[in-house]
Amino acid sequence: MSKLGSLGARLHRGEVGYDFVGNRKIWYGISILITITAIVGLAVRGLNMGIEFQGGAVFTTPKGTHASVSQAETYAEEASGHDAIVQKLGDDSLRIQIAGIDTDKSDQIKEELAKDLKVDSEKIGADLVGPSWGDQIANKAWQGLGIFLVLVVIYLAIAFEWRMALAAFVALIHDITITTGIYALVGFEVTPGTVIGLLTILGYSLYDTVVVFDSLKEQTRDITKQTRWTYSDVANRSINSTLVRSINTTVVALLPVAGLLFIGGGVLGAGMLNDISLSLFVGLAAGAYSSIFIATPLVADLKEREPQMKALRKRVLAKRAQAAAKGESPEPETAAETFADDEPADATPAVVGPRNQPASRNRGRGRPSGKRR
Asked: Does pTM top 0.90 for this prediction?
């Protein structure tokens, strides 16, 4: 842990670092490949929408129901005439979901299920959702997502600039596409819990991105007044200075979510935990990736197109070429060296280490002075 802390301090000071921005084409290619895979999964398999969006009924049997999942699926499909999804819960009860049925037929289906499963019909819980209500929920979810994205873009454009807002928007679309694509490929059910998890991870992704953007904005305030660094160089330093922080916060956030997904959903069989934890797990990982490998490199690409930044790049490259011709180091190795190069020639050097107090000029004042003889 001490080595990790030391590495984080060195990254923050600019003593070491990885060229994320310089290798941005690699990250763009990886992101495009992952996004295409997610889109293909959505097109081929589609999303497994829950009854909250389709309408239908969910029947929950009492504890200790002696029937397998396959048997319960067969009984439910025979009783309703529709496809059924059955989950075995931790207390040996069954959750039977049947989408697309009319709510007035639920009592009949409930009686047939009780007869086939050999349980009391009064002990079977039933939650009913009408098709019109499901459509309304789906529309509200899309409206909420759209409003969220619009407000985010407006805020970032005001707080930072439109290029950063555009880069953050692209990163958010990237995270949404990957998360929904994973849902399509895995086949997990999409419920209101999924929507809640999706909005949660979008906020987390923005938090990580804004941290890097804030550092970048601060470091590029007077960037055109020097000839050591291009905008891409400073953007890369901003990523490296916040890299360990991003990794730490992501890992800490993923650990409890992994517990929900693999223990709560997988071992205990809690269906609702699966719905929300998968979106959180995939979204947190995708959000951390996009803030480092997509958002900031994309901002650097957009800023390098500005005339001022193009002129700065020419000056920086010319100075580096001149330094290389003289056999000097073209770039400063540390952040301290960078600022030292930008100081005036007659600037007083900083004092490092303990400082001795100068001798007092008033020493001896008040004593009788001697006379020369």
From this structure: no
DSSP 261: I
Report yes or no: 306 and 126 within 8 Å, Cβ to Cβ: no
Give per-residue pLDDT as tens, 81-135: 888 888 777 667 888 888 777 767 888 888 888 888 888 888 888 877 766 666 7
Q: Averaged over 251-261, what is the pLDDT? A: 83
Q: What kind and span of H or E run contains 119?
A: none
* Pair of tokens at residue 159: 């707080």
Cα 45 from Cα 41, distance rounded (Å): 6
Q: What is the pLDDT of residues 319-337, one digit of tens each?
A: 888 888 877 655 544 443 4
3-state secondary structure of 99: strand
Task: Give the residue from 204, 223, 245 showing the smallest Cα distance to 300.
Answer: 223
Alpha-carbon span 113 to 347, nearest angstrom: 87
Domain extent listing, the chain: 2-49+133-308, 56-129
State the residue for tokens 């770039």.
Answer: 331
In angstroms, the CA 155 to CA 228 distance is: 32
Q: Do domains 2-49+133-308 and 56-129 have the same CATH topology?
A: no
Q: How confident is the model at residue 352 (pLDDT cuts 50, 70, 90)?
A: very low
Q: Please report where in the chains the tokens 């789906």 appear, as a residue.
A: 138
C-beta atoms surrounding 280 within 10 Å: 25
The CATH class of 56-129 is alpha beta
In this predicted structure, the answer to whether residue 344 has a pLDDT above a threshold of 70 is no
Phi, psi of 56 (to 5 degrees): 150, -150
52, 191 Cβ separation under 8 angstroms: yes
**Edge-to-edge strands, sheet with 84-88:** 84-88, 94-99, 56-60, 125-129
